[in-house]
Amino acid sequence: MRRTVYLAAFAILAVVAALLSLRAQHTVAVVVAAHDVRAGTMVGTDDLSVVRMHDDSVPAGSLSAPSDAVGRYAAWPLTAGEPVLARVLATDRSGGAVLAGLEVPAGYRAVAVPVQPAGAVGGMLARGDHVDVYATPLPGHSTPSSVAPSSPSPSGATTTVASGGAASADPPAAPAAVLIGSDVLVLQLRSDDGQALDTGAGDTVHGLNFGNGKLGSVVLAVPAGDVDRYASAVAEDSVYLALSVG
Fold first, then answer.
1. 3-class DSSP state of 47
2. In 3-state terms, what secondary structure has residue 236?
3. Using only C-alpha atoms, what is the Rg of the chain?
4. 203-215 pLDDT, tens digit each
5. Handedness of CA 189, 195, 200, 206 (dihedral sign)
6. H or E stretch including 241?
7. Which CATH architecture has domain 23-90?
8. Are 65 and 48 in contact (CB under 8 A)?
9. 106, 39 in Cβ contact below 8 A?
10. Residue 129 near residue 238, CB atoms below 8 Å
11. Alpha carbon distance 20, 14 (integer Å)
12. CA–CA separation, 40 and 61 (whole Å)
């Protein structure tokens, strides 16, 4: 009787060991990044590889076929060898809702600049327009923040007044507007409370006031390397837009 129990226990242990061995050897195909992929990049076949991994170590949502990823956009940076998850891929390029059919080169960023209607061609702008962007110092700033201060004049900033002999500073010249962007694409107009404005709202969209509020900002497509200049202008300067009409 005891021998039968031992044999039965041994058989059960053997079966469990066999199952564990089979499980350890069971692998599945997993799509991984062949190299580092930047966010916003459309994924191509060269960006992907297929490896086999133990099924118990595969992250949830991993893709098993490259065709599930090719043609989609990386919504998050991918590291070489990292399993590609369905949730980090998007069917539209980042900012697709803003683009809505407008052609924007890869590597550009959407930047919103606050403007008054008078500084945006009287509020006459529409998405798809091209503008030149100028920055003018706000009161108390002598130089637009997007431009490095010039070196002081070798002769100094003061002159001697003949009557009384006292030294006084010459009145500073009015600061000139500085061009920070030329032929910049307008992606969207937004009201002062952040609502998107479109031509479907009627002619008053381009005036001072309309149903969604008044013009508060213009969203522009700018090269990634110029974002810091626009950010400085937004923080420190008054932005003026000139519409390209020819």
1. helix
2. helix
3. 31
4. 444 444 444 567 8
5. negative
6. strand 237-243
7. Alpha-Beta Complex (3.90)
8. no
9. no
10. no
11. 10
12. 20
